[in-house]
Backbone:
């Protein structure tokens, strides 16, 4: 699962992990700002900061 969080820690969008090696993530509906992507797969969890600038 991939989840997008705002800077307040609120989950605002989720995507399912398929068997596909790539997953399109469209951030166009969201305003400029700082977000965090949490990627969970099996027993691994990765969190990355995303700065959305237009």
Residues:
């Amino acid at each position: 699962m991939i989840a997008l969080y705002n800077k307040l820690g609120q989950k605002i969008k989720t995507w399912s992990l398929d068997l596909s090696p790539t997953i399109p993530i469209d951030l166009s509906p969201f305003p400029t700002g700082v977000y965090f992507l949490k990627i969970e797969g099996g027993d691994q969890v990765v969190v990355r900061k995303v700065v959305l600038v237009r």
Notes: The chain has one domain: 2-52. The beta strands are 2-6, 11-15, 33-41, 44-52.
